[in-house]
Design goal:
This protein is an alpha+beta fold. 36% of the residues lie in helices and 22% in strands. The protein has eight helices and eleven strands.
């Protein structure tokens, strides 16, 4: 994750968050055109994410839910001023999965990536604030294609788990090859495990520039719970989402 020292006007941030930002040093660590993300080095090291109003409330709630299971950072505050949303989360020790030292050990990375996803999917969905993620994903697919074949993806209780929703290497924090936390949880909720599994396969191939570590990932996750037909289905769902 790149970090660039920048000046930052804290007066533009809602007052409920300003106590964490006083006398802090800011580094731009944004990796998306849709949001600005800053590493805040102050009395409490944190990340401040700023996005269009209405875009970060869901991420705040999912992060709080998973923090309760020790799988995500602590939310220090969420606020909106009507134009922008602001989410402040405590920084977690480590680097994301695209860090050079992690990529240099691809077998270890793929195994940790699979084991971490299994840990997430083993949670009880009880209390998850967004219980209908499969329906949301498939409704979008219906709208774009109208294909009846997508009915094959209707929720199946044996596959409904707590999803990350954007399970890519930049969204897992690791230290010395070990899992620390999930981040960027705004697309999460209860849904079909194969959505996360497909994204995991895709990001390993993209970031390692080879499909060689797919089996390491799936073996670490647990092959008995992988349905290849549903995996193909959610590959189509993801591709349709990107086209939309």
């Amino acid at each position: 994750m790149q970090r660039t020292l920048v000046s930052f006007d804290t007066s533009a941030v809602p007052s409920s968050l300003q106590s964490f930002l006083r006398e802090a040093v800011f580094y731009d660590s944004s990796c998306s055109e849709d949001a600005r993300t800053y590493l805040v080095k102050g009395s409490t090291d944190a990340y401040l994410k700023i996005q269009q109003a209405g875009m970060l409330e869901r991420e705040s709630r999912m992060t709080e839910f998973l923090h309760g299971h020790r799988l995500a950072p602590r939310v220090l505050g969420y606020a909106s001023d009507g134009q922008s949303d602001y989410l402040l989360t405590e920084a977690v020790q480590g680097e994301d999965g695209t860090f050079a030292e992690h990529l240099a050990e691809p077998v270890r990375l793929a195994r940790t990536f699979g084991e971490s996803l299994r840990r997430l999917h083993s949670l009880s969905p009880a209390g998850c604030p967004f219980p209908n993620r499969t329906e949301e994903l498939l409704a979008a697919a219906y709208a774009k294609t109208g294909l009846a074949s997508f009915r094959d993806g209707e929720p199946c209780s044996s596959h409904e788990v707590v999803l990350h929703g954007d399970y890519c290497l930049p969204n897992i924090i690791m230290q010395n090859g070990a899992f620390q936390a999930f981040i960027d949880l705004g697309s999460g909720g209860v849904g079909d495990r194969h959505y996360d599994l497909y994204l995991g396969i895709w990001t390993l191939s993209y970031n390692l520039k080879t499909d060689r570590y797919r089996d390491e990932f799936l073996d670490a996750y647990g092959r008995l719970d992988v349905d290849l037909e549903r995996l193909t289905l959610f590959e189509q769902v993801v591709e349709l989402g990107e086209r939309g």
